[in-house]
Design a protein that fits this description.
The structure is a homodimer. By secondary structure, chain A is α/β, with parallel strands linked by helices. Chain A has helices spanning 53-56, 131-144, 162-171, 183-191, 206-213, 227-233, 264-268, 285-297, 315-323, and strands at residues 6-12, 25-31, 40-48, 77-84, 94-97, 104-107, 113-115, 151-155, 175-180, 197-200, 218-223, 237-245, 272-275, 305-309, 330-334.
Chain lengths: 339, 339
């Protein structure tokens, strides 16, 4: 036994029905075993609150990766190494990894990434300087390849990835339109992040607003939401356009997911719906972070974060807020251990 | 006035409801005006019976190209020049073009393509040697790029394009699976066209058959049908796979088209749904036809045709048969003028 106290961890209590509710989760405290050879112990500082979790906790055997009742809730965390029998990690190192929603994690180092908080604050390594920003960077620049003067639509524009993708598209010289769920977030997208146009998809005439904002049609649809916003937008796809399939947050919690019935527009427009997974670009993260750092330094890029202070048991309410659209940028749960 | 007799033409009587019925069309006979400078007169020999017509006659203003009640029915025809005031065409030339369902057409030559029946019989210039075969050729080789040993699924495999796409995929060394609507067509695909596996999608266990036939998943889905067959198949798409969007025949006649709800599989598999239009390849038709001729000559390719003898007023019943799945390969209406 060690003297670190107990590990708080969050488990799936039952499969959610629709939007996840607080009682779909259950927290517990367990003893932390001593680390053995090659292992290290990590104290969590930040937990990334990601919409994709809702897909992973579906009561469905269709997807390869899933969390079932009794399993720990999947999440990326950023934390500090507080004990190590692993030659690659020292006490005091900062790391990120998919260690789940818990305060203390034991790891053999596999899949962990070291973070240098002097490059960017620790929490941002889960957000704009981490998987969210890197996703936006490679999905946009390598898969969509925006050109100056082109028109880019970002759905879920105020989200973790969308808030980065829109800024990157502006840096590429594109006209950038975003859809989001409130007037307040629309104002934020335009005033803080430099979106050219932001549209509240809850407005009855949102599609007419989009049509008016895109007289030359949409060269790129950077889609984080799926659902009717993506589907209607397909009618405006430009010749040889790209619909980048980054996420489908509007569908993850539906009993029956719905597909984009307007997909036949892709045909006549020689366009494509492109899947993407960030891990394929793992060897180029450093290159992207160098660019991101330069843009931050010269004031042309922000790393939007929406930080919820709390402990492990506060994760469910943060997750609920995410699907209520409360966040401006990356949602992070900041644990007591974080400075 | 000339002494050619009258032109029989087929018009849309009213927008079809569901599958098109015979009385959605109406034929009429009109005088043929004399051709003026630069014009030529074409006698139709073959009419291509194409599923895409059902999309064009939808009661919807969503699509740019449409046929409305009172308009001539859109179709590609192959015929003979019987009078010409155009220096580029002589009497006796054979041509194809989108001249509509009528026995005599006046044209200024624009959009017409000359056919050499010594290269391939005239009817085939609408089918395997024409737009259907060229579509299969460029969509498969240029957009999907099948590699030896890969697995290719062709939906609507016995159709005009599908029957060519499957043969091309075999020539590329792929394992080829086709879906179609009857046991008889399954046998034909395997025995006549060399498909490795053919599946009747009306079988209750068709998906299990597909899963069993594709243990290494599907590198290419060459989709002619859309609907549930395409949607279910998406669950088997391989890493970096391509879903080539060639047609959506199952959707053209639906009041509400449905989209592929399994599209999110494209995400995790880094796959893409790719739109395609044959006209982009117009400058390379000769190159493709040279290859096609070589394969025909060495016995490794067939140009499957399903010929209905009849006159202009028989087009509606041929079109109905098409959606009933009666055709093996390209459906052609062979008019009395054809030898």
């Amino acid at each position: 036994m060690n003297n670190l106290g107990k590990n708080k961890k969050l488990l799936l209590a039952k499969y959610p029905n629709g939007l996840a509710e607080l009682d779909d989760f259950i927290s517990e405290e367990v003893e932390v075993p001593n680390i053995v050879d090659n292992e290290l112990l990590i104290q969590s500082h930040y937990v990334g609150v990601d919409a994709a979790l809702r897909l992973i906790v579906r009561d469905s055997d269709e997807f390869l990766f899933r969390v079932q009742p009794g399993d720990i809730i999947h999440a990326n965390i950023a934390g500090e190494v507080i004990a190590s029998n692993n030659k690659d990690f020292e006490v005091g190192d900062f790391v990120t990894g998919a260690l789940g929603v818990q305060s203390l994690s034991i790891s053999n180092g596999e899949g962990l990434e070291k973070c240098d908080p002097s490059l960017s604050p620790l929490g941002s390594w889960l957000g704009g300087f981490g998987v969210s920003g890197l996703t936006a960077y490679f999905a946009l620049f390598d898969e969509c390849k925006p050109q100056p003067g082109e028109t880019v639509l970002v759905t879920g524009a105020a989200g973790a990835v969308g808030s980065m993708a829109g800024q990157f598209a502006k840096l590429a010289g594109a006209k950038v339109i975003g859809t989001t769920s409130s007037k307040e977030k629309c104002d934020w997208l335009v005033n803080e992040l430099g979106y050219d146009v932001a549209i509240n998809y809850k407005d009855e005439n949102w599609y007419e607003q989009l049509e008016a904002a895109a007289p030359d049609r949409l060269n790129i649809i950077f889609d984080n939401t799926g659902g009717s916003v993506m589907n209607e937008s397909l009618k405006l796809i430009a010749m040889h356009g790209v619909v980048l399939l980054c996420g489908s947050t509007s569908q993850y919690y539906q009993d029956e997911m719905s597909g984009p019935s307007n997909y036949i527009w892709l045909g006549s427009m020689r366009a494509r719906l492109q899947g993407f997974v960030i891990f394929d670009y793992a060897e180029r993260y450093a290159e992207a972070r160098k660019k991101i750092s330069q843009w931050i330094d010269n004031g042309s890029l922000k790393l939007p974060e929406f930080v919820c202070d709390g402990d492990i048991e506060d994760f469910p309410s943060a997750f609920k807020k995410l699907f209520e659209g409360k966040n401006f940028g990356k949602m992070l749960l900041k644990l007591p251990a974080a400075k």
